[in-house]
Design a protein that fits this description.
alpha/beta, binds magnesium ion, binds adenosine-5'-diphosphate, about 45% helix, 31 strands, 35 helices, eight-stranded mixed beta sheet
Length: about 950
């Protein structure tokens, strides 16, 4: 019989931390904590398979489920020594908690205090000796159950929450501010009023039967997997919809039984900075979500728990360290203290900023907790870019005093215009993708995700370092200041007031997520600590602890990676910066950028009617280009430099405005009509597929000749200064070996002439960009000539998918929303399609020239998933913009480490381990007989 229910608790635990896919993250870790002897209230997990079954079968459960749940409930009763629905003795209450494989903070629903009704509440009051507590639980239960299971939550921001309204009225009437100050009689009235509201809105009575309540809650949790905000969340973080959620049913423990009780959340290291030491929030005499909901301002664990509850603090600190050592990672822990007894309710690997990820990982290696390999593997490669982002410091802050200070919840510096409504923020962003937005809210909820996503920074007036706003912005890598109590927000008036000053929607403010400071107006930013050391040299490494962590991680990455990393750079300054960030060469220099600096000469060339005129116009350009290349060669100090010959259509370089055309005609001594005519001639309907790339050099060989000459003369000149030089001359947009041969001939002739004259011959290569499907399919032929391939994946994506990058904006969002494309193919390589073409090109290229140099120079060269793919298919290097280099280095190391692990696994299975096809049985003895095609 299929097992759908897994129990956990001190009397026996079926699951463990490895079973996340089946039990969800929460369930698997509850089981693990129970297994290692931590105090976990007993419970059971209904597996994700039931969720899958539920959606595949019209919201029905597998027939075996009911009996398994009933058995597991009996087991809880036994361990806890209480009975569910007991009318005579202290009744067992349970919570019903969602839990997917990956945590999705606040996305799905939890119901606490299940099992209460008009009878059990009386028993609970009598036997606990605390009437207020019992009715507080009941009040919360009816409210949560009504919201989650009976669908009474407000549907939009402007809708009223019937329960919150009644609660507010009651507090007003009772003259109290906090929920906890309501008297039993108030709570009793509230429960009645809540139930009446349920009856009025749903037409049904509130369910009294405890088991019916459980099934209602279980159904609601499974149902919440497909609610709108959960779907949006999964799309944002690339979590598959098929995974499903598990449901955990667990005995309740109570943080709201009095002042010797508490509930809290904690991190074992700071989630924003990574600093060692427990940080977190707690509330005395409170239950569950009060801490994260931002209703009451929580206290800081690190500041006062040791004074409020010294014994529990000590025990908690020990448990937290035990968990961190056990999982060997920063833990995010939820706990409750019931009458001085500590209970663990959740642990998971903490979400963290890029700063915290790097700091904690490097520290843990230095503490001997993990290996460098583990440190590298666990940092999302993209996160490291956070360490390079601008900050507020020094000159920018001169003369500025903060208007308020909150909790520094998500590091980063952000300046923007105030928006109070997330949907308006999103609309502003849709109108202008460069709009700078600071989302200002009392607190954020999962409904606000879309608005948070487009904001540059987030500012809230309530909630601590574990609030929703803090958690989510940390994960999104956004600057966030939360719990900034000095600001008073009025949503209706669309204002925020600080002291005497009032800010309106649209006013500019700046938030510093490092310090928690909020500033009026726009504060100019300065380079990050890392770049102050590497680029500006205004900081010494020894004074820059963040830089030290960064550098440590990068040096470990370089130790493991097999892929080379190069940069796309067009001038000496970029080249210098790239070297500082680890570039081992240049993978793409675009020569057209240089032409813009000498645009008039270049325009003359374009407008020339005869070869002779063109050559005359090209002569000064040669000198300019040579100087530019010399600068780059000098900066690169002997590292290889790939230079692409002219690529864009000439139309891009000529003036299109009347006045400019007249000016140019004057300069050239010709009639404006002639300029106009020529510009018109150059117009193309589809320039991307028009007269560009090698097609230019083929029709105008003098351009290729000039460029090749400039490159070779520059190389010679630099070598004569004693600097080594390795130019790689790259022909763009080749689809046919005949095109390649045509251009190669011109290049080699020019090179030979230069070198002969100079008496120096640098090591140089001639190769091609691979950016057309035809080039991939005929790569064996092209490789007979080309000494290297560099995949131009921007164009290869355009030509491979038949999608124009300039025009896909009109449908890509719909494609993403409908999950037709899982990623934007211009950001993350379409591995199946475009990647498939690359594989063909690699295979065929190597078959014709075994030592062919292979690289990638499209935007994808700095995208982690694409970098990993490039490693897999055996490229020699990736090339990306300078600031993406750290990402590429880290991702390349991750790819190598994954490969090593996979090899070891294949070996363990009895294979040779040398290739993915070999699962043993190929008869290879590493690998002389290898029939799997891996050739050793
Ligand atoms: P989320 O996934 O949104 O964090 P949880 O299922 O973790 O939701 O529940 C939220 C909070 O409810 C927990 O942090 C805990 O404080 C409280 N809670 C859940 N189950 C129990 C329980 N059995 N006893 C006491 N408190 C609980
Ligand atoms: Mg939780
Ligand atoms: Mg291209």
């Amino acid at each position: 019989m299929a097992k759908y229910v897994y129990s956990f608790g001190k009397d026996g635990t079926d699951g463990d931390a490895t079973m996340k896919n089946l039990l969800g993250g929460k369930g698997a870790n509850l089981a693990e904590m129970a297994k290692i002897g931590l105090p976990v209230p007993s419970g059971f997990t209904i597996t994700t398979e039931v969720c899958t079954y539920f959606y595949a079968n019209g919201n029905q459960y597998p027939p075996e489920l009911e009996a398994q749940v009933n058995d597991a409930m009996v087991a809880i009763e036994k361990t806890m020594g209480k009975k569910f629905g007991d009318n005579k003795d202290l009744p067992l209450l349970v919570s019903c908690r969602s839990g997917a494989r990956e945590s999705m903070p606040g996305m799905m629903d939890t119901v606490l205090n299940i099992g209460l009704n008009d009878k059990t509440v009386d028993v609970l009051a009598k036997k606990s000796g605390d009437e207020r507590f019992a009715w507080d639980c009941y009040r919360r239960f009816v409210q949560m159950y009504g919201g989650v299971v009976l669908d009474m939550k407000p549907k939009s921001k402007t809708d009223h929450d019937p329960f919150e309204e009644l609660l507010e009225k009651k507090k007003e009437k009772a003259g109290v501010k906090e929920d906890a100050d309501l008297k039993p009689e108030h709570l009793k009235e509230l429960v009645k009023e809540f139930k009446a509201a349920v009856k009025k809105q749903t037409g049904k009575d509130f369910p009294d039967d405890p088991m019916e309540q459980v099934w209602g809650a279980v159904g609601a949790v499974f149902g919440s997997w497909m609610n709108d905000r959960a779907i949006v969340y999964r799309r944002m973080y690339g979590i598959p919809h098929e995974w499903g959620t598990a449901v955990n049913v667990q005995a309740m423990v109570f943080g709201n039984m009095g002042n010797d009780c508490a509930t809290g959340v904690a991190l074992t290291r700071n989630g924003a900075t990574g600093e060692k030491g427990i940080t977190g929030d707690y509330l005395i005499n409170a239950q569950g979500e009060d801490v994260v909901a931002g209703i009451r301002m929580p206290k800081k664990i690190e500041e006062s728990l040791n004074k409020d509850m010294p014994v529990c603090w000590k025990q908690f600190a020990e448990v937290a360290m035990k968990l961190e050592n056990h999982y060997k990672d920063v833990q995010d822990i939820e706990f409750t203290i019931e009458r001085q007894n500590l209970w663990m309710l959740q642990t998971r690997n903490a979400k963290r900023t890029g700063f915290a990820a790097v700091r904690a990982a490097v520290d843990m290696v230095n503490e001997g907790l993990i290996t460098p390999e583990q440190a590298i593997a666990r940092i999302p490669a993209n996160d490291i870019t956070q360490l390079l982002q601008p900050v507020f410091s020094g000159a920018g802050l001169k003369g500025k005093t903060p208007i308020a200070k909150g909790i520094n919840a998500g590091p980063g510096a952000a300046t923007g215009q105030i928006h109070f409504q997330p949907d308006e923020a999103e609309a502003a962003w849709q109108k202008d993708n460069n709009a700078k937005i600071i989302l200002v809210r009392m607190e954020t909820t999962p409904e606000d995700l879309r608005g948070m996503k487009v904001a540059n920074g987030i500012l809230t007036s309530r909630g601590g370092a574990a609030s929703h706003a803090a958690l989510v912005s940390r994960q999104m890598g956004k600057a966030c200041v939360c719990g900034c109590e000095a600001i008073a927000i009025d949503y209706k008036a669309e204002t925020m007031t600080v002291g005497k000053e009032t800010f309106k929607k649209g006013d500019w403010i700046s938030v510093d997520g490092f310090t928690g400071n909020v500033y009026k107006g726009e504060v100019p930013t300065s380079p990050s600590e890392v770049l102050q050391v590497l680029f500006e040299k205004s900081l010494k490494p020894k004074d820059a602890p963040l830089y030290q962590c960064f550098q440590q991680l990068m040096s470990w990455s370089d130790r493991f990676r097999k892929l080379g990393v190069r940069t796309n750079a067009d001038n000496p300054k970029e080249s210098d910066q790239a070297i500082a960030l680890g570039a081992e060469g240049i993978g793409l220099t675009r020569t057209e950028h240089m032409f813009f600096d000498h645009i008039d000469d270049f325009r003359k060339m374009i407008l020339s009617e005869t070869v002779a005129d063109r050559e005359k116009a090209l002569a000064p350009l040669l000198g300019h280009q040579q100087k530019d290349f010399e600068g780059i060669f000098r900066a690169m100090k002997g590292r290889p430099v790939t230079i692409r010959l002219l690529d864009p259509p000439l139309h891009e370089f000529v003036p299109h405005e009347d006045k400019e055309q007249t000016d140019l005609a004057k300069k050239m001594g010709i009639k404006p009509e002639e300029v106009k005519r020529r510009v018109k001639e150059l117009h193309e309907f589809n320039p991307m597929l028009g007269h560009r790339g090698c097609r230019l050099g083929i029709v105008y060989p003098e351009i290729t000749r000039m460029q090749a000459t400039a490159i070779c003369q520059a190389a010679v000149a630099v070598m004569k200064e004693g600097i080594d030089c390795h130019p790689e001359i790259m022909i763009p947009l080749v689809g046919n070996i005949t095109e390649y041969r045509n251009q190669e001939k011109i290049i080699r002739e020019a090179a030979t002439a230069v070198f002969k004259k100079a008496g120096v011959t640098p090591d140089y290569l001639v190769g091609t960009m691979i950016e057309l499907p035809r080039a991939c399919v005929t790569a064996d032929k092209i490789a007979e000539g080309a000494e290297f391939f560099s995949f131009g994946t921007n164009d290869l994506t355009q030509t491979g998918l038949g999608i124009s990058r300039d025009d896909y904006g009109t449908f890509i969002n719909e494609y993403r929303e409908m999950d037709i494309f899982s990623d934007d193919p211009f950001q993350t390589l379409d591995q199946e399609g475009v990647g498939g073409l690359m594989k063909i090109a690699v295979e065929k290229g190597k078959s014709a020239r075994s030592d062919i140099k292979l690289g990638i120079c499209g935007e994808h060269g700095g995208d982690p998933a694409s970098v990993k793919f490039c490693h897999k298919i055996g490229l020699n290097y990736v090339s990306c913009s300078p600031l993406r280099l750290p990402v590429a280095r880290l991702a390349a190391a991750q790819a190598a480490i994954t490969e090593k692990k996979e090899k070891a696994a294949r070996k363990a299975e009895g294979g040779c381990g040398c290739c993915a096809n070999c699962k043993g049985g190929c008869g290879c003895k590493c690998c002389s007989n290898c029939k799997c095609g891996c050739k050793g």
